Automatic annotation (TrEMBL):
Signal peptide range in chain numbering: none
Domain of life: Bacteria
Coiled-coil ranges per UniProt: none
Family: Belongs to the universal ribosomal protein uL29 family.
One GO BP annotation of this record: translation
Protein name in the entry: Large ribosomal subunit protein uL29
Gene: rpmC
Recorded GO CC terms: ribonucleoprotein complex; ribosome
Keywords from the UniProt entry: Ribonucleoprotein, Ribosomal protein
GO molecular function: structural constituent of ribosome
Species per Swiss-Prot/TrEMBL record: uncultured Chlamydiae bacterium Rifle_16ft_4_minimus_1822
InterPro entries registered for this protein in UniProt: Ribosomal_uL29, Ribosomal_uL29_sf
Amino acid sequence: MEKIKQLRMQSISELQTLYDELSKEIFELNNEKSLHRKLEKPHLFRSKKRKRAQVLTLLKEKGEKPRE
């Protein structure tokens, strides 16, 4: 997991891309969970949600909104 200092040095477009990737990964994990499959690594939910929140915070600090 990247540290917040490394995330701060990234450009807005890189942060938005990272936000999109994390959202997609979280969606896929939720999809697996809803299909009643046992998740191999359930701890990924928390770590990916936390990182997405960090990226969202940085985007808001820079005055940008994530792409929807």
